[in-house]
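Need tokens for this chain, all 497 residues.
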Amino acid sequence: MSEKKFRPIDLIVLVVFIFTAFLGLYLFRQDLMQTIEVRDMEPAGIIVIRNNVVQRRHENRVIWDRIFVDSPVYPGDLIRAAQLSSTNIDIDKNDIFLNENTLIRIQQSMTGNGKFLVELQEGNLSVTSSEDSEGLLLDLMGSQVQTGSGSVLNASVDEEGIAVQVSEGTAEFVVEGKAREITEGSMVALDKKGAERKITAAVVTRPVSNARILNNKNESMQITFSWNRINLDNKDFLRLETASDLNFSNNYSVFDNLFNSAKVSLNAGLWHWKLSYEDKVLSKGQFTVIDSSGPALLSPVADTTFRFKQTEGASRDQGQLRFQWADRPGASSYLIEINDTPDFSSPKISRESVSASMIFSQPGAGVWFWRVKPVFVSANEGEAVFSSSSSFRVELTKDFTAPAIEIPVISEEKAAQSRVEAIRSSVTTAAVNNAARPAPIPIPARQRFHTILRGETLGRISRQYYGDPMQWNKITDANNISNPDIIYPGQIFIIPF
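Here are the structure tokens for all 497 residues:
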């Protein structure tokens, strides 16, 4: 058998293989070093919502990473949302919502005032600046937009140029050093050369992007949509579509032949919408409807009579009663009132509870009325209402032969532990994707609870209770959550103080 000769092509293949291997190792090392360096940086913000495929790449990296809910983002990060995907980022109390096929870069502002600059390279985003924020700086193909506190706007960059629509408040648009104010309900559109361009649009003023609307009635809520028509004739009618999912397939509804407003009845939950003229989408967004009606009163049962024994010298407040009511998802606390008349003009007892139960010393002999109202953070639109009142009777007696209802004194620790165990037993296997039941959770003496709504994240819940979305690890530690990106509507979590 003849000996196989080494051919020149074999040498070329070997060199290419070695070069590829070394290049791969070099790129891996560069990406690893960037990861280590980023850990020492102060985050610019946090991901509070992620739908489908959203990726992040630092400015000096070559590899795109998939990001998750509550992932921090840093100056220099490129973030992109793929098709049928979206994400919401909290940066300095500014909610930035990236629609599908959108790419941004987060940078430190050159003004030196600590603000961050978000460069929209392609796609569409909306910004909601809270009342106590200093706003945010956007860069759109070299033009800059400064949002104001309490403002809501939408910005887009495409092959045609840029467009900015203000739904609420005002924004300052700066191009070539010249500033102009964009007021509520108006827009600015420029081509790639910076010249004004005429486009067909609808600036939606209600509901604002990512609004959280309280519904205090036990029925579907009528949501009013209103918009300003831009470059549309009177004969041009629009179409509004709503759905409970980003693909517009679940609970899908269509409303045709609209001029500048529409009214849609929706139940509690997260809703997506888009407004179109012919085949062109003029505007789109999302909002959440939250049930803020008075909760059902569970205990004491209506018209129950409680009899307590009383001895000489004993306080009339001897004995205790436990009050319990149904949870209201999204409520931060509850206000409970007790009075000796049903009008509650001047309640004898008014207390706030962070959980759906409270223990009181019995208020004394007589007929008593009580009611409960859920309390929500001020960022929500609308208001909550009290439940219908319920009554009970308290009788005091010195007759030791008289039967007495003994109300066990339940410590907050035992009550919270019982509550968590009841929650665990009610969670179905499907709801947790057949995951194993977690180990028992140690319960501190004082606790509060939160029921997960559709679309909520640990970062958003952390901001609701602690004023800081970066405190989400307190919730994961208290509830033994191994993956913070996997939570389900209906789950009830302990919120530590």
